[in-house]
Amino acid sequence: MRILLAILLTLATMTSARADDALGAIRHDWAKVYYQMPEDQQVAQFPALTGRIDALIAQQPGAAEPLILKAIILSTYAEAKGGLGALPLVESARDTALQAAKIDDRALDAGAYTVLGVLYYKVPGWPIGFGSNRKARDYLDQARAIAPDAIDVNYFTGDFLLEQGDKAKARPFLEKALAAPARPGRADEDAGRRKEIEANLAKLDG
Q1: Which of 97, 130, 153, 206 could form an S-S bond across to 143 if both were Cys, CB 3.0 to 4.6 Å?
Q2: What is the pLDDT of residues 4-26, one digit of tens each?
Q3: Is 57 in contact with 33 (CB distance < 8 Å)?
């Protein structure tokens, strides 16, 4: 019985490790597309990324992390595509992030709430889309309550405030994001995010 249990635990650990590796590989490839490719070449790359993350979600139906990454992929796909054709993508990203938050709202530094916050201030409001600055602020606040030092939520909080014209309040969040510790295995993402932070800080100083 003990031997069987040990085998099962080993298999479970191996399966989890493979899933983590697969998630990391997709995340790495997404960062390569989003941060390193010219915008006019990005759109063609997103369907393959979406297919890969959907396959991983099918293997891990109860996991929040793949759902969060899917919401990120769909959000940036919509950003690259632009126009009214992007609306179904942002709606799917919102629904996916909400699903992830129900499973584990702490996963990936409150990634589901961060994605929702970004969507609600980036997407136009009624009658075009579902955007809402109030909801954006609420979701970003919830994300920071869970992960106060995370690079993404601090960056996006600063970006949101900058878009609202509140430069004084935006600065400390952007500076905190820039000072955030490196994330293991996510150097390419961190490098891309820091360039965005520095660009926003330059707007404050300009």
Answers
A1: 153
A2: 544 444 433 344 446 678 999 99
A3: no
